[in-house]
Amino acid sequence: MIHRTTAILMTVCILTAAVLYNGAIAVPVGHRHLIELIHVYCGFALPVPMLAGLLSFAYRADLRRLGRFTPADRRWLGSRTRRDGTIPVGKFNAGQKLNASLASGSILVLLGTGVLMYFVWLAPLSWRSGATFVHDWFALALGLLVVGHVIFALRDPEARRGMRTGSVSRSWARTEHAGWLRDLESTAATEPAVPGDS
Amino acid sequence: MAGTLTGQRVQNALAPAIGAVADHDPTGLLSLIPLGDTFRYYSVTGSVRRETADDYRLNVSGLVDHPATYSMSDLKALPRTSLVQDFQCVTGWRVPGVHWVGVRLSALLEQAAPAKQARAVQFTSFDGTYTESLTLAEARRPDVIVATEMLGAPVTHDHGGPVRVYAGSMYGYKSTKWLSGIELVEAETPGYWETRGYDIDGIIRQ
Fold it and tell me: Does chain B have fewer CB atoms within 10 Å around its N or its C terminus?
């Protein structure tokens, strides 16, 4: 739910950014003020689902898992054979943790610089120029991150099913997130499927 | 934060470096890198009709003794002025050292002979929506021109051609694109972006 809302807002931000930034699209589409308003308000709304998620115990637990980088994560990132299961992976692998940190950090930077650009009376001109510079580069970086994120998702139907339905198969969890499965089994596990992401 | 404060300086260093490479990039992919120092094209309506230099007309009307309609060749017959000056958007992006050629607005005003009660100049655009205005004093500044050329060529459609305003030393929203009319009026009225929050005084102050 949180992921889906964020994904929709992010997609709208990226599409409107493409119009605002690219002259070949901007002039035929026109309606700059409307496109700008959609972009800005979707941008303002982007952190809201994640902040609302803080009310949920399960979401806070996932945030704790995402934010904790372990020595095993570092080994996983540096390994060429990271997918073979020798390095135990918890509910989130190190790539997913990196994605979460980079995406949320970039969103905050884009939000801050976007506010400076949109409310032009807030800051002197040189700040607005600097904010534009930072906003452009972070937007490019976050756009590439999102593209990579989507490519990884497209490659793994079971992970997508987990995001969609909230559960994944035990065999998939054993190969991709063995450490997590072990933890779940050691607490209490007689159910056929294990709960997935919130 | 540091980026916001130093971004302009970093960009000034980066733009010539990457720009030199991008100019020789056959794939064109480098143009997707946000180099800065490039125009962003604004249009506030749907599609804007294209006007050629041949059928273009500029109306000067309102509180004047000599209303007039200028064709492109009429404009080109007037004393031309050329200047190299930045285009600065209020949101922060800037294109430094743009070459502009056109007729000083003050020259057109002189021909029109504004009436005593005229205090401001109102621009209209053939996009059918955009309006802007300047005080008469602002309109008479030497760097406020009715531009027919920019960047070394006739003003392109995307840049607001065939004829646009360039109001140097003011933010870009004052430089009306696709200019169709200049009307002398008693007072400035908030233009398109000014009714949406920007200051009616568009003079750039650092």
Answer: C
